[in-house]
Amino acid sequence: MVAAGLLAFSFVTFALGAPLLREPLHVHDARSAAPQGFQASNAPHPDTVLNLRIALKQKDPIGLIDKLYDVSTPGSSNYRKFLSKAEVEQYTSPKDESLAAVTTWLDSHGIKAKPGATNQWLNIEVPVATANAMLDAEFSVFEHQKTGISAIRTLSYSVPASVKPHLDFIYPTTSFPVTAKRAISSVHFGSGAHDNSTAHGRRASVDASCNDAITPACLQALYNIPTTPATESSNTLAVTSIESSSASKADLQSFLGKFRTDMPSGTAFSVQSIDGGQNVEFQASIEGSLDIQYTVGMATNVPTTFFTVGSDNGDDLTGFLDLVNTLIAQDTPPTVFTTSFGFPEALVSPDIATYIKFTRLHSYLHRADCGVDDGEGGDCTTFRPTFPSGCPFVTVVGATQGTSPETAAQLSSGGFSNIFPAPQYQSDAISSYLSTLGSTNAGLFNTSGRAYPDVSASGINYQVTINGTVTPVSGTSASTPVFASVVALLNDRFIAAGKPAMGFLNPFLYSTGKSALNDITEGNNPGCGTNGFPAATGWDPVTGLGTPDFNKLLALSQ
Ligand SMILES: *[C@@H]1O[C@H](CO)[C@@H](O)[C@H](O)[C@H]1NC(C)=O
Ligand SMILES: *[C@@H]1O[C@H](CO)[C@@H](O)[C@H](O)[C@H]1NC(C)=O
Ligand SMILES: *[C@@H]1O[C@H](CO)[C@@H](O)[C@H](O)[C@H]1NC(C)=O
């Protein structure tokens, strides 16, 4: 009997190529419940195929962060000595043994992985029944009550001990669909209210009309942004669009013909598609029009690419991940990357948030909107931060209004992350702000978190051409492309002089760079039934360190 049993056992083993007795599984990630709004409806058919992505453990993610600070901090002997893609991959690639451990495990379940977006990723297609068994999971159909979005997810998954140290996470198992938020706060059709009340203190060169209507000329005067065309074709500015937000070349031409008569009206932008995204010329959106007109129309002659993310991805957060991976995979990524879309941080699982920390060194500018709330609606018992504003490697831009004086715009978002701790470059700025703040808003925000925004720029009543009509638009969606354009023009000057581009800006901005910014000290960002945070002298979580001065930044960042 024993012999027969052994024989049968080895036969089965041989046939399946794996031992029958599997290693015990250990929980890799779990959540106590689905995010608010999602409810489990029914079990999916066991044969339904799931597309899962496996993120392998990177060789040395901490080493890469050390290196990032080393090349980004003024005074370091490696300042702005950026790594090549191959050098970055020495930190981010998995170890051979990690790839082997995960591949062996997958093989034992008869699964063949395909290469993913970068060498850190593997893609697998696996039926629900197999996924449930190999991951000790319970994949269910979850439906969102309000939006009707449905997705197959699990509340927990496990992996064998021999795989655990080699696997970062499996996506999107416990990560639920998240919809992007745009940073447009208002669009007025018709003329805005006129307020000349504080006109006496206006900066000398800024036209009075700029208090009501922001044009490229207003921003050039406010921030000393040059009109001289950039010369360096290798210096590209990336504008990103999620949620099929299109920009029209005809509207851009009409905008330039009206507001930048010194530029060739045929100045255009290129388009790169991700996940089936399309730039539909005749379906111009407010966001796409604003973002393109205030990059192409500000960063004079800097080559600009519009990355349009489509819907072949499951949800906007996955689209964002695909966008990030596309940029990471480029041999020569854009030197500046601006996006006006974001997500409520509470809905983004920490593993994916941590992954999207940016493993290539370029300036990434992100908008911050909605005061101290994430705009998700429902009860707001504590301030709700947004993602990726809380990421320490992103430069987050808040909004100001007016020119005389320039004050915080109420829509300017500010806050403290619940995922990312405050980085060292920011700790002095935060502690001096918190000591002036006293007990205001105590208990409503996480004092140990990474705080934002870092900087700001004008954000109210931008003149934008949409479907041939000039329309005033407000939001940090306006501020971010302008700050990105300033950085792109600075990079052009540096590259022309044989110097490197600026890269990750924050360690510079919080040290030598801060005196190149106009400190904004008035205004606040209400939300969650409070007045939000007040602006103050120095850094504050409404306007950050302040608005740019091109000439001072050029002088200080040499
Ligand atoms: C405000 O300034 C505009 C010129 O920009 C002028 O036409 C208008 O009369 C002024 N309004 C007030 C109330 O002073
Ligand atoms: C512009 O016009 C197109 C075609 O009529 C329409 O689909 C689009 O929504 C319009 N854009 C805005 C922002 O109104
Ligand atoms: C506060 O932020 C830290 C990161 O700095 C995080 O570890 C902690 O969980 C957060 N607290 C809450 C209540 O979210």
UniProtKB/TrEMBL annotation:
Residues 213-558 form the Peptidase S53 domain. One of its GO terms (cellular component) is extracellular region. Residues 1-17 form the signal peptide. Its cofactor is Ca(2+). The active site is at 287 (charge relay system), 291 (charge relay system), 477 (charge relay system). SUPFAM superfamilies: Protease propeptides/inhibitors (SSF54897), Subtilisin-like (SSF52743). GO terms for molecular function: metal ion binding; serine-type endopeptidase activity; tripeptidyl-peptidase activity. GO terms for biological process: proteolysis. The keyword Calcium applies. Secreted tripeptidyl-peptidase which degrades proteins at acidic pHs and is involved in virulence. This is tripeptidyl-peptidase II. It comes from Pycnoporus cinnabarinus (Cinnabar-red polypore).
